[in-house]
Specification:
Blueprint lengths: L4 H11 L5 E6 L2 E6 L2 E7 L2 E5 L1 H9 L4 E3 L10 E4 L1 H4 L2 H16 L5
Antiparallel strand pairs: 1-2, 2-3, 3-4, 4-6, 5-6
Helix pairs in contact: 1-4
Length: about 110
């Protein structure tokens, strides 16, 4: 599955030149990695966000959020955010920051 290059560029702008952030193609899309852990990414026109098991249910209550289930089963701690949930710049920034925060809380790989 291809990813929305425009959305990827918007994520890059939010990330700026943050130290330790790398891009990696995975899940049929583009992932943004921190210390070897995926923080967020783009798959199709969806934003993928790592929210952790503790924040999973709360995150799903937000506009445009749904389980990340590309394997047929939801991945606990990972969500998709559809266009409705990331079309506005402040919403996109909040999701990206949330993914970064969670990834940075994990021990480096």
């Amino acid at each position: 599955m291809a990813y929305d290059e425009e959305l990827a560029e918007r994520v890059r702008k939010v990330l700026g030149r943050r130290r330790g952030v790398r891009e990696k193609k995975m899940f049929g899309g583009l992932a943004f990695m921190v210390n070897g852990h995926m923080a967020c990414g783009v798959q199709g026109d969806d934003l993928m966000v790592r929210v952790g098991a503790e924040g999973y249910e709360e995150a799903l209550k937000k506009a445009g959020a749904r389980p990340m289930d590309f394997t047929g089963r939801p991945l606990k701690g990972m969500i998709y955010v559809g266009p409705r949930g990331h079309e506005r710049a402040p919403s996109l920034k909040a999701w990206v920051e949330r993914g970064l925060s969670y990834a940075r809380s994990l021990p480096p790989k």
